[in-house]
Amino acid sequence: MKTKKQDTDLMSTLLLSLPAPVINYPIGTANDDKQIQQYENKYSYDAVKQRISTIRDVRLKLKIIDHAILYNYWHKPNFEKTQNQGVTSSDNRVDLIRLYQAALKFHPYDAKYLLGLASIERISGNNDRSTNLVRITLKHNHNDYQALVSLAVVAKLHHKIHKYQHLIHRLTRINKGKAVQFRKTLEIVHDGLTMSLNHRFDLVNQADQQHHFIVILGFVLTPDGRIKKTLVQRLEAGLKLAKQLPQTRIIVSGGKLPQEPTAESKVMKKWLIHHGIQGRRIIAETKSLDTTQNTLNSMAILRRCRAKSVTLVSSASHMQRAYILFKNAQLNSHSDYHLDYYVAADSDQEFKPIQPQDIRTNKAISDALRINGYWVLPQIQR
């Protein structure tokens, strides 16, 4: 059994082994002077470090750090250059890690910060670091449910059947209902990651058009509000469906990220109208900031409109995760409609199943758990 000193040594090793920080990253765009100045003056790691150095109250120090963590979760330096095709990451991961390090210096064994940092490490593909942080959490709280879930995910991904079953047994003893839901979530994730992607119109459900909805997922705009190639491809695929199924309704989903001048869905709706779709057919969902929120907010509209069938439209590189989230949300809300999908082909390589070691697997699982009410950053961001 490890001693407290060994735990402290492990924590020190983890903190010291994190990537070297990159100093003075601006966020947003070069012409967004107000936003850049706000970040540098208030939310950057260096600004937070300077600010808390003048404060004695540890609770106030941590409150300032928490606000900065939340801000950096939704902001990323050099945003325009760091968006991968089909996969939008808005967070400033470098400063997030440094801010969690700072918090852990005040509260080394606080699950809020240990599991938050573990989540960032897992999404970044650093599974070993993430697992070590989770184990430290469990050392001090044997029944921390989210920590046990994190270990169960790793065991499942690495095909450690006995370890996974043992963890499921522990989860079931704590909360049977949540354990059953968790197992169903992982089943949906597995099915989604290994599914074949459909880019054939004839395979899309075409019955009962009046109760059929096409949901087109947004993608980040340029800093001046123009549509990028990835989003054009999604809109073109949705347009094809909308013209072939003229009685369907269309949901365009996408809010305004901090780096964008307007909501993605507003621009998407204008594009569809410009290409011949009547505005009354289109519902713009303007609040979502990521795919998880796209899912939850679109599902609320689908329930309100009593949809009987839904076709999800996104990029090939994005569809598996999006489909996983919509299936989980459908299960949780007990919604009874047929869900299928139609992909915009952004890359021939993206039509292959996603492997367990792929960083997109961690992101899909993390977001699926968020759909089920788990925190991505405990007590800071669901």
From TrEMBL:
> What SUPFAM superfamilies has UniProt attached to this entry?
TPR-like
Any Gene Ontology CC annotation: plasma membrane
**From which source organism is this entry?**
Philodulcilactobacillus myokoensis
The molecule here is called DUF218 domain-containing protein
Please cite one Gene Ontology biological process associated with this protein: Gram-negative-bacterium-type cell wall biogenesis
Organism phylogeny: Bacteria, Bacillati, Bacillota, Bacilli, Lactobacillales
**Highest taxon of source:** Bacteria
Domain DUF218 span(s) in chain numbering: 213-334
Which one Pfam family would you cite for this protein? DUF218
Entry-linked CDD domains? YdcF-like
